[in-house]
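Researcher: Let's run the pair from yesterday's discussion. Sequence first, then tokens, for each.
Model: Starting with the first of the pair.
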Amino acid sequence: MSVIPGAWRRTAAGAGLLAPDGSVAPTIFAEMSAAAARTGAINLGQGFPDEDGPAEVLEAARAAISRGENQYPPGRGIPDLLVAISEHQRRFYGLEVDPQREVIVTAGATEALTATLLALIDGPDDEVVVFEPYYDSYAAAVALAGARLRTVPLRAPDFQPDLEQLAHAVTDRTRVILVNDPHNPTGTIFDRSVLAEVVRLAEQHDAVIVTDEVYEHLSFHAPHMPIATLPGAAERTLTISSAGKTFSATGWKIGWVHGPAELITAVLTVKQYLTYVNGSPFQPAVAVGLRLGDDFFTGAARTLAHKHEILGTGLRAAGFTVHPPQGGYFTVADASELGGADAAAFCRSLPERAGVVAIPLTAFVSPEHRDDYAGLVRFAACKRIEVLEEAAARLSAGF
């Protein structure tokens, strides 16, 4: 007898979250990380750094532990972090955010996103529009909320959406337009015209815009532009970000969401029954990080861009066609000319063949659209330079 309710089972199966026999489907990330451990391959699959973030941020966490800040923090987050998030949004983007009414600290951006969707979705007739490929938790969260996922494709080489397709996807059934910018997995940054069209469609169809901006400080060619800064957007936008990517502390799981007070209250109503609170000693440390000088933030982006250049050079030398990212942790490359027309099979062979692990882009698309991305592979550049140089050498030797 199944212990999984029928409605959830049907929805999860449709989202690719369950195997055909009804068991939990193992993720390609777990599979490829296990392959790296088994073979000694360099793991450029999962997006976590292999070096620590700024010393003053780490020391602030140690100091908080020593001060005894190890019990439940306030439900919305510690006051100083709420203020630091508000200051950060004003400093970098000119956004005015009330720290007492318009911000919640969450267990990473993933909880912020899940709590937001659970709070906003009314029933199975609601739709969530996302750009595809999409971060894999999006489909899971939409399925958990009981809504329908509608996708708008992003095509190589620039991975910008067709605005007519976007307009076709957004209807009066659309409850949420979910925008990940800078984008994972493609590394694209959406043109202002795309963001403006999202705002126009959200106004036309009375939808809420939800943004995932965890790579906001890892934009390589121009400062990040939150969609909430566009005319008419702030009153219907929930902006999500986190400390993990900016400060190379992905295990801390300190994220946040801010937006109009009534929407934030709805999200808090759900969030308090998920993790309730988290990360007491890490919250004051993140407040320290958000107040670091401009040199830190520009330096983080510059360093990561250099790492992408090292990785891209190695991939080209091995025979890949590289699509250079505009931001974020990842470089997408086409393996078709290397016998990688089936990127999933190619990635499964890569640890033995070249001693490197990567992820097929098909892991980030709906099952019915996987043929459209069959030859594309995602590599993580958020590793030490010497690790990327060794990966580049292995790839060149392997092909």
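Model: Moving on to the second of the pair.
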Amino acid sequence: MSDLTDAVLTARRGRSREGRRPATPMERREARWGFAFISPWIVGFVLFWMIPMLASLVFSVLDFQLTDPDQTSFAGLGNWERALSDPHTWSSLLVTLRFTLLFLPLSLAIALGLALLLNSRYLRATAFFRLLFYAPSMIPLVAGVLIWQQVLNPQTGWLNRLIDLTGYQASGTSGLRWFDNPVLVLFAFSFIGLWGVGNAMMINLAGLQGIPTQLYEAAAIDGAGWWRRLRSITLPLLSPVMFYNLVIGGVLIMQYFVVPWVLFGATGHPEGGSRFLLVHFYQQAFVFGNMGYGAALAWFIFIVVAALTALLFGTARYWVHYGSERS
């Protein structure tokens, strides 16, 4: 035992001495080339991310109006107090969270279902269906919003026409006016978002194809059915990919802006149902010109996103399974 301990200590001391040795000319040259190749990213990160973030932090403690920049004065925490006391801040946060709870589980489930379908060996022409489901995500978002604006039109939209076939009168003034109801508008946003679910589907499909087929073969020999294989093999081994889609989807939804802005601008129509957090920030900062208050709102959104992301990472150890870990 003492010989083994001496050998381990000797190896550690050797590694320590090796770690402190000066770099060779080749290593220094490789390091210089490495920094040269990543320098465009570093410059872009500093110029377009770090400096604007620090500038917005400075603006958040200033009374800064875009229309009258010469009258800028120090406001202290006044903008932060205003953001936390503004009822529109909390109502926009509530709208964003409602949409998150509606759309995020639905989009993740549909993306997973499509990936399972396209990964099935019983489905023919899988390449065609992959292209079919992924193609809408390549269409510019503004063009997609304008298309769906016509699809959900209460008089001429084909979705209401299909609902008419069920016997429910959806068209006309008494029908389903998707963009005039604060509840239905969230479903309209969900329809528009689900049209671009192909990206998450492809990520899930890549994760499914990375699961060893030997596990399914062994489970089939043991008599496990489709549902058992899905619950005991597919979902645990796909959980890191699902967690990635969950985090990315949550962050993107908290920054939801383009769709409500194209449809309603910064008006919040109907009855505040489209006033998301980022729409509220845009209205205050660029419509009303309250740049100091807008900067405080931007940091409020950042704190909310960081808190929700930390919450997701905190719960990940209970359901995310990595192949190198023991379940």
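Researcher: Give me one sentence on the second I can quote.
Model: The longest strand covers residues 62-63.
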